[in-house]
């Protein structure tokens, strides 16, 4: 059994994702949602705050790709500073 803990972001509740829930449960994968506005139960919120306040603060981006690269580089820098591992994956709902 695999349990995935998510916040209530719009991507996590999108129609495409909801259509997959039953299939995922059949595979032994269960989705657990944190209560709304419960940042103390979602440690990533602290990391996002630090990323936005330090690694990418004050920068302007010409497009989404440049922003994505800056986020990846910022998370990598934070992981080295804080001693955790960053693992990338591509989420494909189709």
Fraction of residues in helix: 40-55%
Physical arrangement of strands within the biggest beta sheet: 1-2
Largest sheet: 2 strands, parallel
**Secondary structure tally, helices:** 4
Strand content: 5-15%
What is the straight-line distance between the termini? Answer: 23 Å
Radius of gyration: 16 Å
The coarse silhouette is globular
Oligomer classification = single chain
Compute the average pLDDT. 84
Structural class: mainly alpha
Low-confidence stretches: none
Write the H/E string, N to C.
EHHEHH
How many E strands?
A: 2
Task: Write the topology of this structure.
Blueprint: E1 2-6, H1 15-18, H2 21-26, E2 29-33, H3 44-55, H4 64-82
Parallel strand pairs: 1-2
Characteristics:
94 residues, two-stranded parallel ribbon, 4 helices, 44% helix, globular
Q: Can I get a quick summary?
A:
This protein has about 90 residues and is mainly α. The protein has 4 helices and 2 strands; from the N terminus they run E-H-H-E-H-H. The radius of gyration is 16 Å and the shape is globular.
């Amino acid at each position: 059994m695999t349990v995935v803990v998510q916040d209530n972001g719009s991507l996590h509740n999108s129609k495409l994702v909801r259509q997959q829930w039953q299939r995922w449960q059949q595979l032994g994968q269960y989705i657990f949602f944190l209560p709304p506005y419960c940042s103390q139960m979602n440690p990533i919120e602290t990391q996002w705050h630090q990323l936005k306040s330090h690694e990418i603060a004050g920068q302007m981006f010409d497009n989404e790709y440049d922003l994505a690269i800056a986020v990846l580089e910022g998370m990598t820098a934070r992981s080295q500073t804080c001693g955790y591992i960053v693992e990338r994956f591509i989420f494909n709902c189709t």
